[in-house]
């Protein structure tokens, strides 16, 4: 269900637009927002966040909109709110036009997503973005770097993009730079994405995909390199002894910046992909026991990682000669092509890499299958009962 309400930007009082019920227009005010009778059902403390436009939003612990304060100079820009499949969106008019044009990521205005525990933790030091450019774009890149204290964390050749962090106080300045103060993106700017969070997702059984039949035909993955981009891999596990040929850490959550798996998920995935089954006498060997593993740690010791960490791992895997890149991770699929989907498409086309990506374990949930399994060039896996995706699917042969 989609619920929309338009209002003139000011300070907006408690509104029912944060639920799946109807809502009327909201008038501008001058005082700070306070939850009134309309929000007696408010649960937990309020969360305040600053959008990429510099506008400030207040929501309750369920992500429902409580109030809105425009950035200086943006008081006359109309703003609409929508609830889409349980997610509250706050959409300034200038941003909505760019979202519709496919230039700006709608997740940047999904206040339910932005105030999730994982995103609040990831964005606490500033708003993390991935900015894609057209061509060399020296002027655009210089403008981004000059927007307050914006810093570049990573550069991605596959996307012609930079991962940046902007202090919340400087987001209005960055937005003006990105849009050129007009109703479009500045010259040289192609995309503005949220550097969102991804979480580990369970892998499926070996028998389910018919691996034993492949073994009988003499196919065991010999000569193939499989990159496991996950929480790291336990190289001391008997089933993985001698299987890992290279490894690299892309996270900032591990105190020692190592590739060890402190969650267990990455080790499980690597064993499913190319475990020898040594510990069980071959009973629990992986799909391709003759293959070798590239261990890319892109998810931290809490099981979460950012889009930019995952993309960095994808580019590294391709450079190391990976034939297959496994991503047993994901997040809610959003409108348009997100940066992970764009990277999957680009690396598949340019490097011939096959991406095997979890579609999620959410079955009939509205935002299933998860991203980036929704990329057009990925092979995705999901529970056989899931309505949204087949057990195994690929658009590549």
Automatic annotation (TrEMBL):
Signal peptide positions (record)? 1-17
- What InterPro entries does the database record attribute to this sequence? Peptidase_S8/S53_dom, Peptidase_S8/S53_dom_sf, Peptidase_S8/S53_subtilisin, Peptidase_S8_Asp-AS, Peptidase_S8_His-AS, Peptidase_S8_subtilisin-rel
The Peptidase S8/S53 domain sits at: 221-387
Q: Where is this region: Disordered?
A: 16-42, 360-397
Q: Which SUPFAM superfamilies match?
A: Subtilisin-like (SSF52743)
Instruction: Give a GO molecular function annotation for the protein.
Output: serine-type endopeptidase activity
Keywords tagged on the record = Hydrolase, Protease, Serine protease, Signal
One matching Pfam family is Peptidase_S8
* GO BP term (any one): proteolysis
Q: Where is the composition biased (Low complexity)?
A: 368-397
Can you tell me which family this protein belongs to?
Belongs to the peptidase S8 family.
PANTHER family linked to this entry: CELL WALL-ASSOCIATED PROTEASE, SUBTILISIN-RELATED
This protein is called Putative Subtilisin NAT
Protein species of origin: Streptomyces aurantiacus JA 4570
